Amino acid sequence: MTSELEIDGLRRRYGTVTALDGLTFSVPAGQVFGFLGPNGAGKTTTMRAIFGVTGLDAGEIRWRGRPVDEAARRTFGYMPEERGLYPAMPLFDQVEYFARLHGMDGAAAEKAAWHWIDRLGLSGRGRTRIDALSHGNQQRAQLAVALVHDPELLVLDEPFSGLDPGGIDDMSSILAERAAAGVTVLFSSHQLDLVEDICEAVAIIYRGRLVGSGLVADLRRGDRPRLAVRVAGDRTGAWSAGLSPSTGAVESVKADGTVEISLTTSADSQEILDLARAAGPVEHFAYEDRSLSEVFRAATGASVGQAEAEHAAASRTAGATTGAGL
Amino acid sequence: MSAGTRSPDAGTSGRRSGARPTRSWQLTWLIARREIRLRAKARVFVITSVILLLAVALAVALPAILSGKNKADRIGVVGGTTTTITSLITEAGRASGGQAVAVSEPSLASAEAALRSGDLSAVLVPNQEIVVNQVPLGGVTGPVATLQQLAGLAKLIQTVPGAAQAVAHGVALPVRGLEAPKASLSSRLTGLFTVIIVWILISTYGSQIALGIGEEKSSRVVEVLLSSVRPFQLLIGKVLGIGLLAIGQAAAMVVVFVIAGFASGSSLVHGATLGVVIAGGVFIVLGYAFYCTAFAAAGSLVSRQSDVNSTILPVQLPLILAYALSYTVIYANGANTFYHVLGFLPPTAPIAMTVLYAAGDVPVWQVAVAAALTAAGTVWMARIAVRIYANSILKTGPRISFRQAIKESRNAALSRAPASAFRPG
Q1: How far is A237 from chain B (nearest CA, A)?
Q2: Taking a C-beta distance cutoff of 8 angstroms, is the pair A86, B35 a contact?
Q3: Chain A contacts of B395, Cβ < 8 Å?
Q4: A 110-129 residues with CB below 8 A of B?
Q5: Which member of A66, A75, A87 has the closest CB to residue B219?
Q6: Least CB-CB distance to B228: which of A66, A73, A84?
Q7: Which one of A8, A70, A82, A158 makes the best mutation probe of the B interface by having the most chain B beta carbons within 10 Å?
Q8: Please, are residues B386 and B293 in contact by the beta-carbon 8 Å criterion?
Q9: What global pTM score does this model have?
């Protein structure tokens, strides 16, 4: 699959804070692509850079092989992390206005605005002021603004934050539908495990650098597959002491006695089954995917929570108004 | 990062329906149009427009109507009018700056009745007394006061042969001035009136700009806007839209001024006074152009709309200074050197030069020089303001000081090849 959007060696410092440190990855067309990492990893700065809203110290962003320019940006749709619309402007006027700012003529803008208002379940609210809409409907209005000009690249910064489970389903089905229509969809999230079922491929970043990217299925399997085994009556996983290092290593033992083993490339799973069976009846024996937050921890040595706490402490000391992530 | 050059063959982008390359001025106009529609529809705009236009109409027409309708003072004369007495009364009217006519009354009783009914202003009983309805505190004024003197004088000179005839030819001596006359009072008042309008329009619409930008920043809609337009376009579209409204309102006021002036026969619409209004119109446009970007930059410094008032105060200070001092020029004979200097400085010229011109203190060519300097200052101000705006509009957190904003915008301009979004033009 060809890459539509290429992020190439982005660097950006705000005073003493390094937001982007040579970030590189690319996004293929027709996929829902997750851009993941803890708060403060540089996601918002990257997305702002795509729209030229923030400057870069180095690096280039290419769209279909060419540096992104204004004409290209006009075919992009953007939902920033800090949601915002004109509070006193009616919904329809607002959506139509943004359609026109993206170059649609009057008639097309009007038609598209009504289409997306209906499609997002806001029928009958077209004449309502934005500040009179409920919080959930304001989120939908924001999405309508991002979608109204039928963008070829859709960039959404934390689209799932603040949504209830129903809202998350609605949002992910719209993203999937847009991707199926050939749109390149890039969204960010700091809730890695929440979105692992929503996107096909991801780029995971930490401290402005890429720490992993690829299909979600590949990342979760990893290069060392994980086997989970539970022997009846063995709550501590004592049987796994007999595991040979050439087969695999114990990652963890859960409270119910399930032993998680990361296998070596030459491992024979049947050998492990024999070993377990010798200790007692085997209740559970299955390959297991890692969660994306585990992938993150394996790659960075820190949990997402630790990384975010560290970022919060650093921003307090720096006291920098970076414009991002505050 | 792309330098943002718009190549005409912008590649595969724009292949979808509706999304086609848009010219820069079209985007700017879209932004301006939103401002005009939004504000022109607002009730507060309609109400203030009506109030301002009524104020202009009244200010022009009222003095003319009052002085025009104020007929000549009718002075009753008991005991028959003579040429001498008639000319005395006419002279008294002229000398006091009004008009007075003599009306013959058959008896003192009928004259007093006419006085009570308001038909007469005063009654003269030659060589005896002057009767008025009520003597005002501090004594009589106007034609009656003058008549009091003249009639007394007439009584005295009746004994001098030929004096009565001399009085009939007028008693006033000609007055000769050593210097050419300065601008008339009506020109000065028009000047004062014009600078009040300049001041009201610039500060009202200027704070609307700052508030509008504060709203875009605090509601965070600006980030969505900046994903498709450049800060320069956004700022220019906003000040253009609001400016067109301001100029529309100013033009309507000038039209009302001229119509009301001619209809009421006001002396304000003649000659030099009309020139003052034209100069005022030019300086409204220039003053707005100079200040609009500064107000925009001030609005971009705050995160909450409620902070806007404190950031626009420094922007308004030069205007306040020029406006406050303008009264000293309007009511004095000639402006001092300091005010002349203010007349040529772009921040104060829109008010100071209009006042100087109205007071007749400067020739037209100096007005033209001041206008040119203000226009040049406008370009300079716009460049600084756009930089501050572009640098501050996405910064949240505490209010940014002007010094900090200027410093940072300079650093940003020097240290980094700016993203296309930050480049004016």
Answers
A1: 53
A2: no
A3: 321, 323
A4: 112
A5: A87
A6: A73
A7: A70
A8: yes
A9: 0.75
Closest by CA to B242, choosing from B203, B205, B215, is: B205
The reported pLDDT for the residue numbered B420 is 38
| Domain ranges within chain B, ordered by starting residue | 26-63+183-422, 72-168
Torsion of CA A149, A151, A155, A158, to 10 degrees: 50
What are the φ and ψ backbone dihedral angles of A253, each rounded to 5 degrees? -120, 125
The shortest C-alpha distance from B31 to chain A (Å) reads: 8
* Residue A240 DSSP label: G
Blockwise average pLDDT, block size 10, chain B, 425 residues: 38 42 81 91 87 85 64 80 80 75 86 86 84 79 79 76 65 65 70 85 91 90 90 92 90 86 71 77 91 92 84 90 86 80 93 88 91 95 91 75 72 45 35
Mean pLDDT computed over A272-294: 89
What domains appear along chain A, each with residue ranges and CATH number?
3-220 (3.40.50.300), 223-288 (3.30.70)
Question: What residues form DSSP beta bridges with A7?
Answer: A25, A61
Taking CB atoms and an 8 Å cutoff, what residues of chain B touch A323? Answer: 394-396
Q: Which residue of B has its CA nearest to A323?
A: B395
Give the B window 168-207 contacts with A, CB below 8 Å.
none
B419 and A CB contact within 8 Å: yes
User: Could you say which of A60, A150, A152 has the minimum Cβ distance to residue B1?
Assistant: A60
In CATH terms, B72-168 corresponds, of 3.40.50.2000, 2.60.40.4070, 3.40.630.30, 3.40.190.10, to: 3.40.190.10
B283 half-sphere exposure, CB direction, 13 A CA radius: 37
| Cβ within 8 Å, pair B419-A98 | no
Nearest CA in chain A to B23: A103
Cβ of residue B230 closer than 8 Å to a chain A Cβ? yes
